[in-house]
Amino acid sequence: xxxxxxTLKMGAGIAAGLVLYHLYAVAIGYPSAAREARAGYIMLxxxxxxxxxxxxxxxxxxxxxxxxxxxxxxxxxxxxxxQAARDTLETEIxxxxxxxxxxxxxxxxxxxxxxxxxxx
Length: 120
Prior knowledge:
This protein has 120 residues and is mainly α. It is built from 3 helices and no strands. It is 88% helix and 0% strand.
């Protein structure tokens, strides 16, 4: 039916077709392998993104805790300074009243005056 030459031509055509398909598959990439590679890459990218978000949230939490602690220390120092100022003012008022009493003079400082002095 077919001669030997026809059979060789068909064999050469099939071989050339397989070679071209192989070159195409190698150049473009096998679709299933590309899909699998992309799926793995997507999972890896999502994992990396999630880890980065978690690290950023932890960094922000630590920074907020540090800022809160610093604020607490400053508030405590400010309260101590304010208490020291009140104590000093109270001592000065008592000293002044003692000086006036030693000279037999009266101090007409009322409770409202003392409150005003404490606030200013």
